[in-house]
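Human:
Class, as today's exercise, you are to examine the entry below, and be ready to discuss the fold:
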Amino acid sequence: MEKQSGIGGAQVWALSLVAQHQGLGVTQLAALMDIHQSTTSNLVRSLIKSGLLHSEKSASDRRVVELYVLPEGVKLLKKIPGPFAGVLPHALQRMDEVTLLQLEHNLSALINRLEVDEKAAQTPIAMM
């Protein structure tokens, strides 16, 4: 996905969701992607910096930030074949709850073994 679009798969997924729901908030985007809001904020920040996404305060509630895909983002999405969410979320949705809990436990153990701090969250594992 990254070779084809120039941005990561999660960013493409987030961009596609905002394109489907123009004016979406960060909290709603996090819920749709089923990821933590801080992770979503990082994705949104990088998409804004790349000139693919725009954010603005809601006219009805100035505390709420609304997200909009810019023309460059629309152009990028048209070049990429779906699915935008990728195969991993699809596979995870089909797993039973016991298996998901085991996976979460085992991934937590793996993350602890990596011995990294919060600053490493944006660094690909291969570059650590």
Summary: Residues 97-114 form the longest helix (18 residues). The longest strand covers residues 53-57.
